[in-house]
Design goal:
The structure is a homodimer of 318-residue chains. The radius of gyration of chain A is 20 Å and the shape is globular. By secondary structure, chain A is α/β, with parallel strands linked by helices. Chain A has 2 domains: 230 residues, HAD superfamily/HAD-like (Rossmann fold, 3-Layer(aba) Sandwich), CATH 3.40.50.1000; 71 residues, no CATH class. The first copy, chain A, is 40% helix and 16% strand. In chain A, strands 1, 2, 3, 4, 5, 6, 7 and 8 form an 8-stranded mixed β-sheet that branches. Chains A and B meet through α9, β3, α10 and α11 of A and α9, β3, α10 and α11 of B. Bound molecules: calcium ion (2 copies). The site of one calcium ion has 9 residues of chain B, from loops.
Chain lengths: 318, 318
């Protein structure tokens, strides 16, 4: 906290951010929150910052990375499930027919998640996520999926923590899918990751206890579920919230109601060259109502193309 | 973490604990976990410690303090609910007939909790807990309920944190009932409190968003629910777990299975004079199977009467 403020006056804490009103707004907020005697000062214990993950800390195109994980899992498990050849959504998946797969909609996706995420111990699931991250490569960048994280957001997370903030992920993605790698990649430990979940049960397992994942939805941490998830897992209202889609709007509205004052941040994907450009019409990460409300209420909107010097760490030139 | 170890060699970090094998076992474990090069060294990020609350960090007699809160709430709300005069468990409660109230069993208690904990915003509930803690006095000690915390356990929490542990509460009690005061009293922030919960929903509320508590159970963080709650909220297996009843047994079993090694601690209420003495036959905080398993497996059992110099902070003589 306090000890770092000396350093941050001499070294740029956000070197991958171009100078401009976005960077200025972030730094002015942090300065106002941390400086003793400031009218907007907030005690360290209440400096809660929440970040959406998909399309906000890492990419989400051409579709959610967790869906690719589920697809790869189902493919690997298919030899043990001959019945899948005739059952949707497995049939479409195994035939590589993404259009037919998407036509199965949310019920189809839930079946995929249950088939690929349930019926095993949490330790085995954790290992399967780590194994997938080591082997799988993103089709466009030919890089492991968890290297497609945003360098400017990594700097922002560090900057906030250096200023006494506690940083949380609040994502619609699966909590058990994120936790195996968020500590190493984002510096966010598992207990500061909030996400969607399926139920689980304790099994004494003859003296070698395990937690088994069950094929039943527990909690969907999206849209109006995000403030509920924040209350449930964090128990304090954030003073800083960051997202990229309409699925984050309620989180930002909830944060904006903090009487201590708050900073609301949207990431607008405007960079088709270095990443992707999409907003109001996208099926993934749609940003429509949120963009209107951000403009109406004066929330800060990152323009990826102009605000970021670099997108991914592997594009950083020293 | 490391910086404090110098201090702890010269100043006793557990001054309210009598010398003996309980204190020695705790300190030997912490020393082995924290000393670089030790065969039992555990990295700081994995030093997860979980503590039961009722009867483990604060007292739970003559009955759970949260039940007294619910009773006081129901009494205060009774004038708005004339129908309660003829409905159990409210009738028994309003007539002060604790025996009849207890005869309503768990369904009766759940009705009390729903009537006193649901149908309001989380902010209003939070305020009602703080108000109760200011006004209510414990019948035996005539002190606010949240001063009936155990001085030796406060020292243990500090000692673990000074040695790089992250401390969590994992309680069967209501998560929203604990969070308003655990940070101030135990140094445990809301996001490190795991407990039982009822469901909640987001209400945009015409631009002043709130979370409303609903009359529906969400999660029971007791017995086999404790390891499930640990997985759900913490996402790592503890290396240190502390409880006082059979409701903690699965948490201790789960912790004992940590391949990094672990410390399991039971608090045995043996001090009728300074606190209460109860174990195998108690309706509240029964410790029966857990006591047997602790002896069988060599877990550490605190004998309150002999291991603790003082019980409550207000009994401390400087
Ligand atoms: Ca997103
Ligand atoms: Ca207990």
């Amino acid at each position: 906290g306090e000890t770092v403020s000396v350093e941050t006056t001499s070294v740029d804490p956000l070197p991958s951010w171009n100078e401009g009103k976005t960077k200025e707004a972030i730094m002015a907020f942090v300065e106002g929150v941390t400086r003793e005697g400031s009218p907007t000062f907030v005690p360290q214990a209440d400096r809660i910052a929440t970040f959406d993950n998909d399309g906000n800390l890492w990419s989400e195109q051409p579709f959610y990375f967790q869906l690719q994980f589920a697809i790869d899992r189902v493919r690997a498990m298919a030899s043990d499930h001959p019945e899948w050849k005739d059952q949707q959504p497995f049939k479409a998946l195994l035939e590589g027919d993404m259009q037919a797969l998407m036509a199965e909609g949310e019920p189809g996706l839930i079946k995929l998640v249950m088939a690929s995420h349930a019926g095993m111990t949490t330790a085995d699931f954790d290992a399967s996520v780590k194994d997938w991250l080591e082997r799988a490569r993103h089709p466009r960048f030919d890089q492991p999926y968890n290297t497609l994280v945003y360098q400017p957001m990594l700097e922002l997370l560090d900057y906030l923590r250096d200023n006494g903030f506690t940083t949380f992920i609040v994502s619609g993605g699966g909590i058990d899918f994120m936790r195996p790698w968020t500590e190493e990649v984002y510096g966010i430990p598992p207990h500061q990751v909030v996400g969607s979940s399926i139920k689980a049960e304790f099994d004494y397992n003859a003296g070698s206890p395990v937690i088994r994942k069950l094929p039943e939805l527990d909690f969907i941490d999206d849209k109006a579920g995000k403030p509920v998830g924040i209350h449930k897992f964090i128990g304090k209202k954030p003073i800083f919230a960051s997202g990229n889609s309409d699925g984050d709007l309620q989180m930002l509205q909830y944060t904006a109601s903090n009487p201590k004052g708050a900073f609301m941040l949207y990431l607008h994907h405007t960079d088709a060259e270095r990443e992707w450009a999409y907003d109001r019409d996208s099926h993934i990460g749609r940003l429509d109502k949120g963009l209107d409300e951000a403009r109406e209420k004066g929330w800060t909107v990152i323009d990826m193309k102009t605000d970021w010097k670099v997108v991914y760490p592997f594009q950083t030139v020293e």
